[in-house]
Amino acid sequence: MPSQKLPNQVGVLHNYAEAIIQAKENGLMISQEELQEANHIINRVIHLSPRYAKFYCTRGRILAAFGKFHEAKTAIRRAIDMEESTKKDYAIRINDYLYHLSRIQTNEFSQVFSEKIALTEKSFDEAKAEIDDSISKLKTENLQMLGFFTAIISFTIGSLNILGNKNFLESALLILILSGSLVLAFVGFGLLFQSKIQHPWRTVAISLLSLFTIAGSLAAYYFVS
């Protein structure tokens, strides 16, 4: 590594760090370790020669590769401020600094924009999931309500048929059997359309009560008849 073989040659060290960030900016496969090495080198270069403007521009480019856009822009603006206007290539250097500053600002905007799009898509997916869940619950409630009214109609028609042919006690027992059966049917109907059972103990208690009602009424009707 240049930093080990030529620890005080700022020109060689800077060229090495600049070559790494140039390769990274051009889409070549540069590892994080190599970027870290370039960052370490440019910091050493600036420590040894803090008055050379271009070194700060290179530091800004390396910082931008790590996503530290604010620090990167600060470093490049410092390079612009430090560049000596008396040099013949002043305009070329300033134009180069401005190019890198503009590119970093564009990359920063693209990253922020991408993050906002990802956040918007996530919010949209969450809202869609909530709407789908609400629609599913509404369908379940409507089906349960339909089953409830069907049970009432069946109970009414069945009761009228029973009362027409039996005495009071037999009719009462048969109506209890019918009621228990309808309650069980309604509970089962609700379970078919619920992905998650709400109040499971209440459901079990109602089902057991209905079964006991049916069993007790059947036994009593057997002895009465």
If you had to describe this structure to a student in words, what would you say it looks like?
With 225 residues, the chain is an all-alpha fold. It has helices at 2-5, 10-25, 32-48, 53-65, 69-82, 90-165, 168-192, 200-224. It has two domains: 2-117, Serine Threonine Protein Phosphatase 5, Tetratricopeptide repeat, CATH 1.25.40; 130-224. It is built from eight helices and no strands. Helix 4 (53-65) packs antiparallel against helix 5.
Secondary-structure element order, N to C: HHHHHHHH
What is the CATH H-level superfamily of the largest domain?
Tetratricopeptide repeat domain
CATH topology of the largest domain: Serine Threonine Protein Phosphatase 5, Tetratricopeptide repeat
How much helical structure, as a percent, in the residues? Answer: over 70%
Assign an overall shape.
Answer: rod-shaped
Low-pLDDT segments, ≥5 res: none
Measure the end-to-end span: 105 Å
CATH class categorisation of the largest domain: Mainly Alpha
Radius of gyration: 40 Å
Report the mean per-residue pLDDT as an integer.
Answer: 79
The CATH architecture classification of the largest domain is Alpha Horseshoe
- State which percent range the strand residues make up: under 5%
The count of domains is 2
Provide a compact summary of the structure.
It contains eight helices and no strands.
How would the blueprint of this fold be written?
Layout lengths: L1 H4 L4 H16 L6 H17 L4 H13 L3 H14 L7 H76 L2 H25 L7 H25 L1
Helix pairs in contact: 2-3, 2-4, 3-4, 4-5, 4-6, 5-6, 6-7, 7-8
